[in-house]
Structure formats: structure tokens, C-alpha cells
Amino acid sequence: xxxxxxxxxxxxxxxxxxxxxxxxxxxxxxxxxxxxxxxxxxxxxxxxxxxxxxxxxxxxxxxxxxxxxxxxxxxxxxxxxxxxxxxxxxxxxxxxxxxxxxxxxxxxxxxxxxxxxxxxxxxxxxxxxxxxxxxxxxxxxxxxx
Length: 145
Description:
YlbD family protein; YlbD_coat; mainly alpha; single chain
């Protein structure tokens, strides 16, 4: 913890640590009820263990409620983000390209099924019928009627 003029005094550093454990003090300073100087002087005179400081500690029940509320809000925002991302994805999707990918996946699944059946010992592996084309060595080959 350094400042433009150098390091902070050790007691000021301890006070900053103390304030971190008593967050309600920050709210009071922001509301203008007290100044940091007043809090520091009280802290210096009374010490950290005085019962006065208990009122500035954060209530664990309030903390849990705030955390639950924050989690609910975060979940709602993440759901909205997810839905927005899905809508953007759908808007930018190329239908022709998606159809081509689905056809490729379907053919791969069919091939895998054939391989699995051949390993199971099935000799009757149904193969897709493909039109047979005559083997042509001669480019001017004509069939007779």
C-alpha cells in the first residue's frame, strides 16, 4: 500500500484492514454521517475489540440474503445471455450448410452401423444399392439392343 508520498503508516494500514471487516462504516461515511478521520480517532482510542464496532460489522443473515438475491439475479442474467446467444446463433446459421453437415453425420452413422454389424459376425450386411455402370475400356462403347 503505497501513496504518492510513500508508504502508509502501519496504524493506517491496520485501520484499513479493520474497515474491510466492518463494511457498514463505508456506508456511514458515504452518507456523510461521519468522516474517516472521526472513525480513525475512535478506533485509535477505543481499540479494535470495543463493543462499539459490532454495529458496523455486516450481519451474516443479511449477507446470506444478499448473496442469495445476487445469485438469483445472476441466474436470470445468465439465462438471458444464453437465450440471446442462441437467437444470434440461429439468425446467423446457414441452412444449406447445416443440411450438408447433417447429411454427412447421417452417412457417418450409417457407416459405423455397418462396421459394428460386420464385427458382430453378421454376413448379411445390407449395403446400399448403387447403380452398376458397365466398365468401359473403349470410349466409343455402345450397347446393342
